[in-house]
Amino acid sequence: MSFLDHYKQTLATNYTWLFGGRVFNEANNSAFYAKHLPASGNEALIVDLGAGPGFHSLPLAKMGYRVLAVDLCEDLLDELDAAREDANVTAVHADICKYLPTLKENADVVLCMGDTLSHFESLKDVSELIRDAKTALKDEGTLILSYRDLSAQKDTAQTVIPVRSEANRIATCVLAYNGEKVEVSDIFYNRANADSEWGMATSTYEKLIIPIDWLIGELESNQFKISFQDNQRGMLTLIAKPR
After folding, report:
1. Would you state the pLDDT for residue 40?
2. Which of 188, 189, 226, 241 is most buried (most C-beta within 10 Å)?
3. To which H or E segment does residue 121 belong?
4. Strands, E, within the chain: which ranges?
5. What is the per-residue pLDDT across 98-143, written as a single tens digit (0 to 9) for each?
6. DSSP string, 195-224
7. What angle, 0 to 180 degrees and rounded to 10, lies between the N-to-C axes of helices 212-221 and 123-136?
8. Dihedral (CA of 56, 58, 59, 61) sign
9. Torsion from C-alpha of 100, 3, 155, 220, nearest 10 degrees
């Protein structure tokens, strides 16, 4: 199953809950960007690739940035629009792998956050995104990337991860490693109340393993200089600027 079909069939309706809710995510992201970007956006242009429901786009708009929120999943963009109010965010339904060359002006910041990079088909696609970002950014621009490091358990046949649970909702993830990719099965159990029977929804798609040394090499070979690198429980974040 493609990642887009996976989102349409299973993940999109559970996405915000799965990651802890909108308030939690926007607060965390606001704190991150307050540390790493100018406090007043002054309508500088940010391109948020893989924007989803706007966990990054909306906090950045509140800082004064203009944001193009790009995603291929219409359900998540609809959720962003519903939460947008008067924020300076434009939802763009497009393939993020092909979007940057279509920009009409150079961006101040390009983001690809969450675990979006792992949804790419190949390392070649990631390399092309970095190349396109270099062209799309202003000379003093900023590229911010994050993704989950799936390489740590590469030699493990299968890993079961309990993701989140509430009284009437449970999410579990099963990872099956296969060469340079990981087969991801998201499993959701839902019931209306304690007297109801449980229902189950599941679907499977592939994620790409991205070695951090390879990614750093790609950034450097495309004339980016890394100014920040962090690893929070397997979620890697890199900030880079054109040389």
Report:
1. 83
2. 188
3. none
4. 45-49, 66-71, 89-93, 107-112, 137-148, 158-166, 169-178, 181-190, 199-208, 224-232, 235-242
5. 999 999 999 999 999 999 999 999 999 999 999 999 999 999 999 9
6. TSPPEEEEEEEEEE---HHHHHHHHHHTTE
7. 40
8. positive
9. 0
